[in-house]
């Protein structure tokens, strides 16, 4: 969708901001450009909508050389979101959102209806916020309006330059989550500039790590974190990159442990015998409908022979869908002070799949690092384990 071919930008004072850059962003892909200040990220982005012209090389949008397209027409196909949102202070939020639709000559009613739809999509109630002026919004809400405005005319491409840079970390994380949800619906081709590696790995399908006008590594976040291409990249992503990987590594069914499973209505004595035979200290308890109820310890099952599992089990409401990140799993275990977290298949009626334990989480992380280094799938990786650990 966006293709850079040997693009160089040298400013009039001789600064080479971008040096012989070649890369490709596929349709519907979100690529984050990350790197320290002054390494050429913004210059790269502004060349796509021709706010800056390259010194040499070509940029193709959907196969078309952008120098052949009138800049105004070009920009209608490209949504642009920047840190200083740039809303018109004397126009309402609804009118701000409809800006591009007005420019495109849409009838007023259609433009406003579209703007209201977009505000809703970014989590702002048009009835509440639409009539306000930008200064009557919080920083996070203004950023949402910026995103809504950029999406209003439904451009295939979005350029986002540190869009969440000016808000505090909590709001920022919320905006990132909302944006991921939005992107899963609208599937735009996105170039997203940030200097924050956490943000880059969280949002990007792939990330381009910049150093001095060149791309030092361009790959999936897990690969960049697991196998940095150069010492520069390793240094940039940080010594705690294994920890960062937790947030981009999904739980897979193969990571899970399968403890014994008993039902609420099962008799306690046979359930106790089963646990003893399997050498298990506890079992997962499902309800009549096969949904997760909680757990029961072997000890409580053997105390007195009568009754059902239900009399002795304890509730455990916390669970995660398969595909959630290892970081969410770890965080959930800490939050519930539990040595395991149940993993369900939320696409198939919350079917119980197994549990993730700290040891299994560690294995999953190691396996994913190995898999990325070898270009294999995680399930194919055999781990060498230290016995007894
Ligand atoms: N108009 C200009 N004239 C001369 N040099 C410029 C101009 N604009 C940018 N530069 C230089 O080009 C280099 C790349 O700038 P650019 O803004 O692309 O970096 P960046 O990675 O986006 O940085 P930041 O994260 O700080 O925004 C920097 O050295 C900058 O000083």
UniProtKB/TrEMBL annotation:
Listed A to Z, the keywords are: ATP-binding, CBS domain, Nucleotide-binding, Repeat, Transport
Q: Which residues form the signal peptide?
A: none
Under InterPro entries, the record lists: AAA+_ATPase, ABC_transporter-like_ATP-bd, ABC_transporter-like_CS, CBS_dom, CBS_dom_sf, Gly-betaine_transp_ATP-bd, P-loop_NTPase
Stretches assigned to the ABC transporter domain: 2-237
Q: Which residues cross the membrane?
A: none
Q: Which family does it belong to?
A: Belongs to the ABC transporter superfamily.
Report what the protein is called.
ABC transporter ATP-binding protein
Origin species, per record, is Streptomyces gamaensis
């Amino acid at each position: 969708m966006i293709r850079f071919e040997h693009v160089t930008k040298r400013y009039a004072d001789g600064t080479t901001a971008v040096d012989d850059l070649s890369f490709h962003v596929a349709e519907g892909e979100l690529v984050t450009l990350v790197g320290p200040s002054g390494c050429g990220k913004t210059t790269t982005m502004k060349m796509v909508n021709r706010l800056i012209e390259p010194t040499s090389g070509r940029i193709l949008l959907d196969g078309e050389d952008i120098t052949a397209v009138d800049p105004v027409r070009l920009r209608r196909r490209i949504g642009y979101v920047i840190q200083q949102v740039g809303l018109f202070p004397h126009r309402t939020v609804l009118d701000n959102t409809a800006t591009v639709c007005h420019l495109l000559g849409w009838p007023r009613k259609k433009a406003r209806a579209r703007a209201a739809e977009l505000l809703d999509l970014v989590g702002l109630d048009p009835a509440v916020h639409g009539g306000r002026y930008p200064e009557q919004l919080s920083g996070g809400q203004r950023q949402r309006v910026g995103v809504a405005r950029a999406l209003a005319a439904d451009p295939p491409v979005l350029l986002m330059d540190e869009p969440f840079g000016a808000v505090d970390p909590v709001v920022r994380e919320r905006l990132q989550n909302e944006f991921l949800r939005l992107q899963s619906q609208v599937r735009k081709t996105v170039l997203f500039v940030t200097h924050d590696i956490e943000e880059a790995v969280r949002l990007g399908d792939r990330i381009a790590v910049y150093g001095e006008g060149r791309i030092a590594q361009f790959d999936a976040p897990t690969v960049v974190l697991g196998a940095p291409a150069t010492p520069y990249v390793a240094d940039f992503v940080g010594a705690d990159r294994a920890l960062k990987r937790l947030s981009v590594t999904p739980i897979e069914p193969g990571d899970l442990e399968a403890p014994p499973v008993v039902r609420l209505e099962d008799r306690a004595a046979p359930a106790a015998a089963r646990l003893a035979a399997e050498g298990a200290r506890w079992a997962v308890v499902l309800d009549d409908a096969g949904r997760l109820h909680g757990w029961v310890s072997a000890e409580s099952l053997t105390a007195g022979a009568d009754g059902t599992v239900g009399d002795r089990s304890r509730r455990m409401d916390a669970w995660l869908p398969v595909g959630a990140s290892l970081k969410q799993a770890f965080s959930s275990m800490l939050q519930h002070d539990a040595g395991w977290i149940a993993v369900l298949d939320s696409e198939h009626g919350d079917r119980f799949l197994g549990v993730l334990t700290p040891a299994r989480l560690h294995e999953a992380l190691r396996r994913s690092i190995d898999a990325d280094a070898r270009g294999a799938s995680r399930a194919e990786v055999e781990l060498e384990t230290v016995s007894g650990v």
